[in-house]
Amino acid sequence: MAERRAFAQKISRTVAAEVRKQIAGQYGGSPQLFKNLNVGNTSSNTVPLTEAVEPVDFEEYLITHPPIVESGPLRDLIEFPPDDIEVIYTPRECRTVVPAVPEEGDTDPHVRDCVRSYTEDWAIVSRKYHKLGTGFNPNTLDKQKERQKGLPKQVFEADEMPENSSYQDDQDDLKRRSMSIDDTPRGSWACSIFDLKNSLPDALLPHLLDRAPNEEIDRHNEEQRKANRHRELFALHPALDEEEPIERHCVPEVPKEHFGQRLLVKCLSLKFEIEIEPIFASLALYDVKEKKKISENFFFDLNSEQTKAMLRPHIQTAAISTLARSAIFSITYPSQDVFLVIKLEKVLQQGDIGECAEPYMVFKESDAAKNKEKLEKLRSQSEQFCQRLGRYRMPFAWTAIHLMNIVNSAGSLERDTELEMSLSERKGSWSERRNSSIMGRRSLERTTSGDESCSLTGFRPATLTITNFFKQEGDRLSDEDLYKFLADMRRPSSVLRRLRPITAQLKLDISPAPENPHYCLTPDLLQVKPYPDSRVRPTREILEFPARDVYVPNTTYRYR
Questions:
Q1: What's the distance, CA 9 to chain centroid?
Q2: I need a labelling partner for 2 at 20 to 30 A (CA). Which of 19, 28, 100, 399 fits?
Q3: What pLDDT, on the 0 to 100 scale, is given for residue 192?
Q4: Largest CA distance in the chain
C-alpha cells in the first residue's frame, strides 16, 4: 500500500450520512437542541421553543433605545418629527332632539361601549407633514380640472374649419397651381420662377445683425420663457402608470348619515263616488329596471272624522306619528325607471275582492238620491264589518305615477302647476293635462327619454290629481306582476286594458324637500331639529332601500 502524502493525512474520511446520523442521535428534539446549544451560556434564561413569547412593544422599544444619529444637516430627515400628529376632537352633530341610541341599562360593558360609539365626539388625526410623504398624491382629479381652467385652448390648423367660399377658392387655386406645375418639368427654370412667384415671403427678423452681449440675450430669452408660463407646468401632464403602485391614503371626510335627493310628497285629499267605509292608502317607490322596492311604505289616513268613528272600538288613541300626511322620500339613484306606487286598502270583509269593489264601479255620485236605500244598506254592512274586523285589512286598488315624467313636466311649467292624471281608454297609457284654469286643458306630451338628466332638486312644485285606480285582481298583487304593469305604463300596451278601473280622486303635492323642514320625524319616529311644537301634524322621513349599495357603515343607530 502506497504511503499517504502529508496533505491527505489531514482530510477527514467521515461520510456525510454518518455525520447526519450522529447529529440526529445527539439532538433528538427541538427543546433538547435548544438546551444543548445553550450549554456554554448558563447565565441566560432558557425559554422552550414550544411556549409563546410576548411580542416586543415597538413604541416602548423606540423610547428606551433612541436611534444613534450623528448631528448634521440631515438629522431632521432621519428622526420622526414630534409635531407631525395632532389629535382634534370635534363634537358630533345630532340632527334629532334626542340621540338615536337605546337607553343604558343593565347591559354588558362591551355593548355600552358600542352604543357610545354613536354619540362620542369625532377624534380627527391631523398630519402636518402628510404632503411630504410618498403616499400623498397632489394631482387629484379636482386639482387637475382647477389647473386647466385658465389655460388657453389650443387650436391647430387641422382643427380649423374653413368657410365654404374661401375653401372653394383655395381648392380652385390649388388646381390651377397643380396644372401649371404639371405642365412644366420638375427642376426647370420655369418651375423655379413659378415657385418664387407663388410663395409667400417670410417674416423679417428685426435686429438680426445687431451686436448684443451674450448676457443680454440670455436675459431676454429667460423673460420670454417666463412670460405667460403656467406655475405648475409639469403637473398638467397626467401621471404615468407606476410599475410598483404605492398605496396612497387620502384624508377621509367626517362620517355622516347618507341622504339622496329628497322629494316631499303631501297627500291632500282622497274621494270616491260613494263614501261608505274607511279607506287606507300607502305610498312606496319602485325601480322597474332593478326590479326592486327602493323605499319603505308610508301609510296615511285621509278619512273624515265621521268615517274614522266606525273604527273607534278598535283604535282608542292614535299616536301623533300616525297622523302624518306628508312624507320625504330619499332617492340616491334617480332614473327614468322610478315609479311612485299608491295602494289602497279597506277593512276586511266577507266575499271576493271583486264583489267588495263592485259598488265603487257601479254607483255614481250623481245617482246618490236614486240609490239611497242601497247605499244605506252598504253603509250598515260596512259598520258591522268595522266592529268585527276593524283591525284587519284587505287589498282594494292601486295605481302608479311615473315620477320623472312628473318632474320633467313640472319643470317646464309655471310655479304651482296642477296636473290631472287619468287612464286613457284608447291607449291604456297615462296622459297628463294642466288644469283648465291655467292652460285651458292643453295636453302635455310625455318625455321619457333616458338621456335627460334625472334631477329632483330644481323642478317647480306640482299638484297632481289622480282620477283613476286599478281594481285589485286576486288576493295579492305580486311584485313580478307589479313590475310588468309598471313597465307597460311607459308605453301603449294592451295589458292595462284588461284591468278594471275604479273612479276616485286623489290629490298629491310633489316638490323638492327643503333643507331643514320643520316638524319632521325620522324613520325611527324621532323628532328632527327644529321641532317647535310636538302637537303639530308631523312629516315623516321614509327610509330608503338604495338600488345599489351605499357604504356608510356604523354612522347612525337604527331601531330594528
A1: 85
A2: 19
A3: 65
A4: 144
Instruction: Note the CATH number of domain 261-410+455-542.
Output: 2.60.40.150
Extract the C-alpha cell encoding 283: 305610498
Beta bridge partners of 432: 421, 444
SS3 for 469-487, per residue?
EEECCCCCCCHHHHHHHHH
- Which DSSP symbol is given to 289? T
Q: Which of 22, 23, 19, 46 is nearest to 35 (CA)?
A: 46
Alpha helix (H) residue ranges in 466-557 = 479-489
Q: 10-residue block means of pLDDT along the chain (560 residues)?
A: 59 65 58 50 55 78 74 69 86 89 76 86 86 68 73 73 57 52 51 70 81 89 84 72 66 84 94 89 93 94 89 82 94 91 91 83 76 85 89 91 84 55 41 34 34 70 89 78 86 74 91 92 92 91 89 80
Q: Cis link prior to 99 (omega < 30° from 0)? A: no
Pick from 499, 493, 497, 544: nearest CA to 286: 544
Per-domain boundaries in the chain: 261-410+455-542
Query: In the structure grid, which three cell numbers stand for residue 516, read together?
Result: 331643514
Scored b (16 or more CB within 10 A) or e, 465-486 reads: bbebbbbbeeeebeeeebbebb
Secondary structure letter of residue 152 according to DSSP: P
CA-CA distance, 36 to 311, in Å (whole number)? 91
Neighbouring C-beta atoms of residue 442, cutoff 10 Å: 9
Report the Cα–Cα distance between both ends of the chain, in Å, rounded: 98
Q: 3-state class of 377 per DSSP?
A: helix
Is residue 399 classed exposed, middle or buried when 0-12, 13-18 and 19+ CB atoms within 10 A define those classes?
Answer: buried
Give the per-residue SS3 of 209-251.
CCCCCHHHHHHHHHHHHHCCCCCCCHHHCCCCCCCCCCCCCCC
DSSP 449: -
Cα distance between residue 281 and residue 237, in whole Å:
59
Q: Where are the beta strands (DSSP E) in 273-406?
A: 279-287, 292-293, 298-300, 326-331, 338-347, 393-402
- CB environment 245-276: b (16+ within 10 A), e (fewer): eeeeeeeeeeeeeeebbbbbbbbeebebbbbb
Q: How far apart are CA 68 and CA 77, in angstroms?
A: 14
Residue 448 to residue 298: CA distance in whole angstroms: 26
Residues 517 and 54: their CA atoms lie apart, in Å, by 57
- Rounded Cα distance between 131 and 140, Å, is 13
pLDDT, residue 449, reads: 35
Tell me how far apart the alpha carbons of residues 51 and 348 are, in angstroms, rounded to a whole number. 72
pLDDT of residue 182: 47
The C-alpha cell that represents 431 in the structure block: 296622459
Q: Are 240 and 329 in contact (CB under 8 A)?
A: no
